[in-house]
Amino acid sequence: MISLETYILITILSPLIVFLVTPLLSRNPNLRDLLGPLGGVISSYGAIEIMNAVLEGKIPKLDVLDIADGIKIGFEVTPLGAIFGLVASVLWIFAAIYSVGYMRGNQEKNQTRFYTFYAMAVHAALCIAYSGDLLTLFIFYEVLTFSTYPLVAHKQNELAQKAGRLYMSILVGSSVIFLLPAIICVWVLTGSLDMSKNGVLEGNLNPEYAPYLLAMFAFGIGKAALIPIHKWLPAAMVAPTPVSALLHAVAVVKAGVFTMLLILTNVFGIDFLSKTGASTWLIWLASFTLLITSIIAIYKDDIKARLAYSTISQLSYITLGGALASAMATQGAVLHIVTHAAGKITLFFVAGAIYVGAKMSKISELNGHGKSMPLIFLAFFIGSLSIIGVPPMAGSWSKFFLMLGAAESGHLFVLVVFSISTILNAYYLMEIPARAFFLKKDREIKVKMPTLITIPIICTCFLTIILFFAMEPFQKLTSIMVN
Amino acid sequence: MISSSLGVWNYWVVFLLMMIGLFLVIGRKNLLKKIVGLTIFQTSVFLLYITFGKIQGGTAPILNNINNTIYSNPLPHVLILTAIVVGVATTALGLSLVLRINSEYGSIEEDDISAQDLVDYHDLIETNKNVSVKFKK
Amino acid sequence: MTDIIIKNLPILVVICPLMMSLIVVLIPYNFLSWVITLSTTFITFIFSLLLYQEVYLHTSISYALGNWAPPLGIEYVIDKVSIVPIIIISLISFITTIFSSKIMPAEINSSSISKVYSLWLLAIAGLIGLVTTGDAFNLFVFLEISSLASVALVAMGGQKDKQGLVAAYNYLVLGAVGATLYVIGVGLLYGITGTLNLADLSKRIAEINDNKALIAGFGFMIIGIMVKAAVFPLHIWLPRAYAYAPSAVSVLLAATATKASLYILARILFSVFDISDTLIINTLQYVILPLSILAMFAGTIMAIFEKDIKRLLAHSSIAQIGYITLAFAIGTKASVAAGFIHLFNHALIKGALFMAITSMSFYINKRITINNLSGLGREMPITFVCFVICSLSLAGIPLTAGFISKLYIIKASISADGIWIAMLILASSALSVVYLWKMIEALWFHEGPKNLLIKENSLVYIPLLIITFLNIYFGLDASLVVNSSFEASEQLLGARK
Question: The pTM is what?
Answer without folding.
Answer: 0.90
